[in-house]
Amino acid sequence: MSDSWNPVPKMALTDLKIRKAKQRAKGYRLTDALGLSLLVRPSGTKSWQFRYQYLGKEKILSIGSYPIISLAEARTKRDDAKRLVADGKDPSVEKQLQQIDAEAKARMTFKEVADEYYDSLVDRGLAVATLRKKRWHIEDLAKPLHMRPIDQITAAELLHLLKAIERSGRRETAKKLRSTISAIFRLAMVTMRASADPSAALKDALLPPKVTGRAAITDEKEFGQLLRRLDEYTGWPIIPAAMKFQILTCTRPGEARGARMHEIDLENRTWTISPERMKMRREHKIPLSHQAFDIVMENWSEIKGVELLFPSLISNRKLLSENAFNTVLRRLGYSGNEVTAHGFRVTASTILNSREFNPDVIEAVLAHQDTNAIRRTYNRTTYWNQRVDLMQAWADLCNDFRML
To answer: Catalytic annotation on 342?
Structure first.
């Protein structure tokens, strides 16, 4: 070793002796007992060391600096190291392994696990809209957690994040974010990167969302007026055509905006939406009324490479924007409290039920999933003819409403 060591009597150290130890031109060591000593460097810093024999070789283990590590603590660490030697382990190697493990855990950040969770959702084929919301949860709402080691995140930390969102009036968002965070922690647990899910304790800590129904027109005369205004709309015709198609097929806005020509069977006049585009993740086959089929034919394109029935104005290979339908409704004079594109399904359901059409057939038309598995299978296999009739009846009623 480079330092020269002055001989020191081999007697147990005391705190007083350590405090009185002065720096010298050359470093020296104060010996305690059983291999423990205190190195006093020319700079005046004092560091604990433990000398031991391992596999016939003398080795030195650095224990820490004084006074951060007290004399009593240094002796405890020395004894721990001696037990490792007795067990056939090298204390220096064990210390390195502990440091590597700590560094690895520090690199296991919330963001790292969250990205793995998101990739698993992509592999499972979740709907684009669902993936977009999950990405928003991870990238934006949970950003304060990104660089935190996931096994160090506490319930109090998560509550602070969620309550801030809740106080902004977004109760439903806070609830759904907690659910996303919980799923990320469950992945961390099964991959041995976290021992518990701190978000589980917060289920009852958040206020329940304020439930509000979709804004919708349910009066037949008022709905007829909306349809007339839609017929008279002078803007780009693709959007009102897509909106009418949505109304006539009782689908969700995203399903109508994403309608592709290969999904439509012109011969049998049906539209089959694939599971990945459906909210309930199952195929939905829709009989097209005469009016809906006419819209299909009016917007059918023979241009090679064009798949969308209702493409964007920007590109015939891009979807209409999510706000396209509601933007038209606002231009027609309707506020968001009066009607939204999502509310068209409420309109159809309310009017058809009030006219005493079969409720089970209406639910099948809306692609709602029956909670009873046997009934669910039965409804899907027996209501096709009734759905064909109902879809045509609904289209004819829409024509009648225009005349009210």
So the answer is: yes
> Active-site residue among 342, 376, 380, 402?
342
Catalytic residue among 105, 368, 376, 402: 368
Residue with tokens 């160090």: 152
CA distances from 82 to 34, 364, 380 (A): 9, 73, 72
pTM of the model: 0.53
Active-site option among 46, 111, 175, 252: 252
From the list 279, 285, 380, 402, the catalytic residue is 279
Catalytic residue among 78, 345, 383, 387: 345
Of the two residues 383 and 263, the one the predictor is more confident about is: 263
Whether 137 is catalytic is no
Give pLDDT tens digits for 79-95: 999 999 999 999 989 88
Lowest mean pLDDT among 28-32, 194-198, 317-321, 400-404: 317-321
What is the CATH T-level fold of the domain 220-401, as seen in this structure?
hpI Integrase; Chain A (1.10.443)
Q: Among this protein's residues, is 279 annotated catalytic?
A: yes
Q: What is the rounded distance in angstroms from the CA atom of residue 156 to the CA atom of residue 161? A: 9
Nearest to 293 by CA among 322, 259, 321: 259
- pLDDT for residue 71: 93
> Max Cα separation, the chain?
111
Told to judge if 368 belongs to the known catalytic residues of this protein, a careful annotator would answer: yes
Q: What is the domain partition of the chain in residue ranges?
A: 15-91, 110-202, 220-401
